[in-house]
Structure formats: structure tokens, C-alpha cells
Protein 1
Amino acid sequence: MIELVVATRNGHKTREIQLILGPEFSVRDLGAHPEVSEIRESGTSFKENAKLKALAASRQLPALVIADDSGLEVDALGGAPGIYSARYAGANATDTDKIDKVLRELARVRATEDGRRARFRCVVALARDGNLLGTFEGIAEGSIADEARGDSGFGYDPIFVPDGFGQTFGELPNEVKNTISHRAKAIRARALADRLRRLEFGD
């Protein structure tokens, strides 16, 4: 079994990554490592933030580390919330607060149907012993619903309708979402999976 540590304390994200990777992998997160200090996301892109988190955690842990940075980009909002997705409605905002702010902003700018086009973007960084081993990107295109729908997933999932579907990520079953999501596309990238297996077996 390939053991990974995800540089996050977001249990929702950890469980999703475990489901995406499957039983070949054992996935833990920083909740099991209180000795790892808080990692400041000071980058100006998803890629920079993913690299910062992966490298910082891998310097403190004797393990393979992956970190993802991801967020929602809405065309009518100029790409916002983007890299600030987690903090878009304030540092201690709930998922509902963040969703409400996106919907209010779309109403404020009187977004057209085209303006409601959006995408989830994810970059995953892989590191060990303070060395970056690669970055992998996944994008899910879609649009923003008029209201939140569904109780599955987390974050902005209840308002994101992926292309080709009438349901939001919050309504879709996990087994469907985890084949089409931005995070699934980044994590299941053949290059990442192959790299993990080579590292595990010493190639």
C-alpha cells in the first residue's frame, strides 16, 4: 500500500482524495501531525500555493506529501474568488457564507448566462524531503446555479453545475463527482499515479 500525507487539515478534502485514489493508497493529513506548523498560503497562483504547502510539510515529515490548491473561477466576477476561494467571505466564513457571497456578487453585476460560466481549478504538488517532484493540474468546466442545491461535497459544490450535467456537485453521487471533478482530474493524472508507484517501489 502506498502511504501519502496530504498537506491539509480539511477532513472533507482528505476523504475525497482517499476516495479518488482508491484502496491502493493510505491517505492521512496534518490532523495526525500537530507538530507541523501552520503553512501560510502566500503564493499568487494555485500552483505556487500547492508547491508551498507540499514543500513545507515534506521538510517536516518523513513521508511522501501531496498538497492541492484549488478554487472556483467565475467569469462574470473576473475570475474571482480564484485563489482566495477559501477566504472569499472572510477568514471564519462557513461554506454557506461563501456561496451566498458568490450569488450576491452575481446578482450585483447582473450576470448573464454567459457570465455564469465558471470552472473549478486544482493543482496538486508532490514532494518528499523538501524536494518538489512534480505538479499536476485538473480543470472542471461548468456554470453557477441560481441557488444552492444538494448536501454532498463541500465548499462551493452546491452551486457548481459541471458541463454535461443538470445537477450540481452537491447533488451528484460521490462516485460520479470523483470521476469528473477538477481534483479527480489532477490526482488521477497518469503522470502522477505513475510517479507515485515508481517512488513507492524505489525506481
Protein 2
Amino acid sequence: MGRALITGGAGFIGSHLAEALLDAGHEVDVIDDLSTGSIDNIAHLKGRPRFRYTIDSVTNEPLLAELVDRSDTVFHLAAAVGVKLIVERPVHTIETNVHGTEVVLTHANKKKKLVVIASTSEVYGKSADVPFREDADLVMGPTTKHRWAYACSKALDEFLALAYWKEKKLPVIIVRLFNTVGPRQTGQYGMVLPTFVRQALAGQPITVFGDGTQSRSFTYVGDVVDCLLKLMGEPGAIGEVFNIGNAEEITILGLAEKVKAMARSQSPIVFVPYDKAYESGFEDMPRRVPDIAKVRAAVGYEPRVGLDEIIARVIDYVRKH
């Protein structure tokens, strides 16, 4: 069994990945600056013998170099996340995403360590060519709208990682994650499902941005993590880009109604214009649905947890916490 380093390992996805790697017999190092992660996410792992964590930034190069050196695989999940954070702190977003990835790739390259880079469905931008395929064109909005800075920063991460593979033969795998959801996800940075669940359980208005006709597909964090573990062991995945998601689509209004019903909530559903929610002239994409044929062919990926079960688990988690 190998040793894995997870950057952003105290985050929502990172903490679930750490747990799955430990369960599979690997040693796990986590580095997280807790800017969006939380120590609570990994508290239950602290007593495990093969688990270590460091509270620091990936931009601390001497430290990162040491952590990369003693690992076999690096899962690079550290990034600025959530639309709210991106709109409010655009400088932080671009610098965190681009520079962080640059540092990870530089140090991994010294000993040719496998790097799995977490990218996002956001890179598809305004493309209307649904479902999104990995080789499709990416359609960005104008640079004057900060909303696209995140998509662009993550696309740059992908370009850089693939350049390292092409030019320096650093083994990299890129995964584009589509709205990963589940227990431990906070609504703090604009994540829609935990926000709806918290509002519904508290009897507060459930706030739907825009007119609610925009649709998304949601993937259970456990399905994503299983897929990451499979890709890590698949030589044919190196140098490739994979969507990881669930093709089951729902409108945001439909999601609000489902959460309200499943939580047996009396909350009213209210609509908030994008201009009020984020900033004036904010642009959203009407649909975001993955084509998962490529990852299915590579490692037999199939999402197992459907939306109703995901919502039930999140409601249960929020109730307990």
C-alpha cells in the first residue's frame, strides 16, 4: 500500500477521500490551511495510526516539498471553492488556484509522483453543448465578469498539469467534478444543497437564485471518492481528463421543492435575483450535466447513490449537527 498526500484534505471532499484511503490500507498525509476546510471534518481520523495532518498552506514550499517527497500519490484538492467566495474574493481565488497548483506540480515533478488534480464542471463555462464531454470546447464569459475567473483559473490548472505530462512526463490525472454533495459540506460558500436543507429544517425561507429553471446534476461524495481511488490505480488514466458526475438532472426550483417535502418543512420558497445574490450582471449557466462514458470505460464508474438518497443523508447529517 502506498502513501497519499491530500492537499485541502480537511475540506468536504478531501476528508471523505482521506477516510476511504485509510480504509483501503494506505497511509495518508493531509495539508490544509483551513481557509474553507474545517478541522472538524478530520477529527474522527486523528486517532488512526496511518494518518497525519498539517495545518499550513500548499504555498509553504519547503514543507510541501517534504510532504510530496514522502508520498507516492498527490491528490490536489486545495482550491478556492464556492461561487460566493469567488465573487467576493477574486484575487484570492486566482492566486490560490493557479499558484497552489504550480507549486504542487513543481515539487511532484522532481520525483515524478502521480498527481490527481481536482478540476470542476465550471470549466465548461457557458457551453450549451449538453451533456458535457471532456473533449468539447470550453466557452468562457468576458474577463469583466469575475464569475468566470474561477473557471479560467481551473482551466489553467488543467493546461499546466497536461503540459507537465507532455513535456516532463509527470504522471497526472485530471478530474472534473460536478456538484459533489453529501455530509460535511457547508453552505457557507454558496453550496446549494446544504443551504436548502438548513433553511428547510430551520423553517426559514428557502432561497432560490434567479428563476430556478437552471438545472444541475448532483453526485454523492462517496461515489466520487470511490472513482478517485480506482483512477489512482489505472495506468491508462494518466494524461487524461475525466468528468466525474451523475447524469440525473434537476432544476434548482425542483431541488428546493424536493428538499422541502423530504424535510417535511413549512418553509416558503422565495426567489432572489442574481444581482442581489452575487453582483450585478452575474451570469449563470442554464444546465450542467456530465457525459460519463469516458470514466465508465476507464474504471467502470457508475454513480450508485441517487438524488433522493443523497438528500435524505444530508438532512440526516444536518439534523444531527
Protein 3
Amino acid sequence: MLDRIDDKAQQTEVVLSVSDLTRTFPGVRAVDAVSFSVRRGTVHCLVGENGAGKSTLVKMLTGALRPTSGAMRINGAEYDPTNPQDARQCGIATLFQELHVVDELTVLENLTLGMERSRFGFLVRSDLEDRVVSTLKAIEPSIDPAARVSSLSVAQKQIVEISRAASSGASVIIMDEPTAALSEREVDRLFAVIRRLRAAAVTVIYISHKLDEIFALGDFVTVLRDGKHIATRPLAEVAGRAALIEMMIGRTVFQSYTPRDGVGDEIILTARGLTNGVLRDVSFDIRQGEIVGFYGLVGAGKTEIARALFGVDRFAGSVTFKGRPVGNSPKGAIASGVALVPEERRTQGLFTSLTIRENIPVMNLRRMSRAGIYRKAEEIAAATDFVRRLRISTDSINKRAEKLSGGNQQKVVLAKCLFSEAELLLLDEPTRGVDVGAKSEIYDIIRDLADAGNSIAVFSSELDEALGLCDRIFLLFSGRLQAVVVNGPDVDVAHVLHVVTGGAEGTVE
């Protein structure tokens, strides 16, 4: 059971420390010689832009990744987990954005899952059940241990996970974007639970893009930028949102945007009142030949807008393309002239076991046939043409897609969408996982397509990408369209981050 700890001296004790922690991937140093300490019985917040290194750091803390170099210590002892089970045994538990509860089991069964005691292969009675129930009651007495988890709200399911972590003896609980799917009332309840944990000397490492939450809840904050440790400070010493944002940026954001003359006045797509489980009354227009960006942080709703426009997800509201309703399915969207390059290209955008030649025509097979006869010669001609136009690096159009680099796979997905004769391309994280050279080539392709009259919507979590590529940028936060930025040299980057981290709403034109 959680007992209140009143000894303030315990909150000066270091429970977790990292020293020169580094993790490299081919061509990338995701975490670069990071060093900081976390005190017992505090809420220690971890912030940074997308790509700052937060996720990689957490994976090393939880044993999901091994550091390339550096050291970690927990409760004064050397800490070198080889897997998440090692981390749990050493007292580190993690609550991910995606819940890890079993809906078909009861609350009690979820609380004891993985901690059951057995003898000769049979479960044996222990004090475990009494202990986990006592912990649950101390955290949230309104939850019935006998209730099925499927009957609980998202916030209550999170509390079950927190109770399981606390009853396992965890001294550090890592919470990754825990409020992404919660209502305002549920957020308040979660904060109350976190404060009870802190009062019982449990340390919470809290990761969030919502800066108001950081200031409302945190004792300390660590800022990461480009894989490096920028600062660890008491939040009482941080002079508000502007100062924290300045630490997060700390550089001039690279902008290579050149104003374009090809944008017409004709509105090609109109979306009004898009609303579903994530989106909240989102409305916007896209013009002929325009590159628009949708920029936001985790949970902002970028991908959900793309999926709604392409007919993958259901929504309330309306979408019209060239004056006609877009179908409520991908097939209907393609028929209307809308195509999507999905974020997960390998699992959602490609048939990796098929060749380049076989992948390109799949969104418009009717174009390859006449009188019911499939014309292989035209398939070969189309593949050869797109390999040339998009500069796909391959020695043969008959190479399987799985053998291509990430950048060339992305070009094949673009070729598929172009072959479908789409007039509006939805590009969800178009350069994720590709190298710098391939990024530049993809950006050139996008600009060329827009200059040729295609409309492009780029859904990106990279601010550099949005500012370098898009004519207008829609800023999103928590499922809402907060503001629109007309791109140019005078864009206030700090204000952009202020808006997408939950600051005052801007004006949507």
C-alpha cells in the first residue's frame, strides 16, 4: 500500500542517473552523450521537439534498446537492462500512450497479471491480491477490483496500469503522453493520482508536448534537442512557456522555402466540421497547385485528418473535392482524384513482395487493360517512365520493393499515387526514415508536382519540413485546428511552437 512520505530529505536523493548516454543508428546519433539525474519523489518532466531523442532515451531506460555507450544507475547501483523485464525487476515501470490492459479480464486479474506466484506449475495463494487491491484503493477507491476492464473509461484503465506498477514496487514510473486520449476532467483525476504517487516517494518521469501540463505538474524539467541534453532545471526557475520553448528550439530553424507563383485561386478541396474520436470541428480549404502543411506534435490529429480525407476513418462533417462529395472509403477517394501516401509505407503503402513494375499500377488497374485484356507492355512502359521521372535508384523495374532503400520505397508509393491520376496527394510523414539525400529528392518531386498543377497536403511532425516546403501551414493541437500560417521569411517559429504546445489559439483565416 502507498504510504505518505513526509521526509523532504528523500526528495533530494537521486533515484536514477544517466551519464554520457549515447545511442547511434546507421548515420544518426539519436542520443548524444546525455547526462542528468532524477530525484526521488518528484515529477521529472522530459520535453523536446519531435526528433529530440526522448523516445530513444526512454527505450534505453526501459531496456528496449541497449546504449551504444554511457552508463545508467538506479538507487545507487549500476543499471544495465537487457530487456523490459530487467527494468521492471529493477524498479522501473512504463505507461505507454497505448494502454496495455486486457479488456476481457477483471481489474484484479489485470493488476496481478505477470506477477502471479506458482509452485510446480500451479498458481498458489499469496498476499499479492491483498497488496494490489490495497494499492488500488489508495490511488482510486472508486474502481471495483471485480469489474471487467472493458467497462472502464480510458482514464480508469490508466489508473489500473499505474496501480499495477506501484504495487510491483516500482520506484520510477515513466508516463509517455498519458493525457493524449483523456478529457479535461480525466486529466484532473490523473494529476491527482500522480500527486499521490509523489507524496509516497514514487518518482514519475512525465513526457508531454503539452507545456501547460508540465508547469502544472512538474518539479523538474529536462530539455533535449537534436539528441543532446540542453538543461535540467527546477520548473520554479523556468520563466514560463516562452523560456521553455526557447530552450527547446535554441537554434534558427532551417527554412529553404521559396514563394511559389503556381498557386491558383480555385479551391479544390473543402473540409467542414471534421469530428470523430480525435478530431474536433476541423475546417479548411486547399487550393489548386498549393502545398499545404498540417503540423502538430503527438496526438495533434495530423494522421487522423489524412485518414478522414482518404475515407479510412469515419467522421461527422463533410469533405468535397472539386465540388463533389469525396467517397467514404479509399476506393471512393481514389475515384474522386484523392490519393494517400501513408505514414507506414512498408505495411500500408507497398506490396513489398511485388516488384516495382507490379506495385505502380495497383491503384488504377483499369488503365492497364482494354476489352478485359491486361496489357503488360503498358505496365512495363509505366514503370520505366516513373523510375526515370522520380529518379528511383534501381537496376531493374523487376526488383522487389522490399529490396529498395527507404527513400526509393517512398518514391514507388508516390509513383502509385501519381499513376492513379490523383489531383490531390495526401503525404503523411513523406520523409520519415529516409536519408538526407533522399529527403531533398522527395522535396524536389513534391515541388515539381505542385508546379504542374497538383495539390499537395503534407502531414508532418517536422517543423523544418513544414517551413521549408509548404505555402500555408495549419497548426494543430489536441485534435483542433488552432491557427494557419502563411509561409515566408517572417514566420515566428517560437509562436508556432507556442500554438502547437497548447498556447493561446491563433486566428484561422
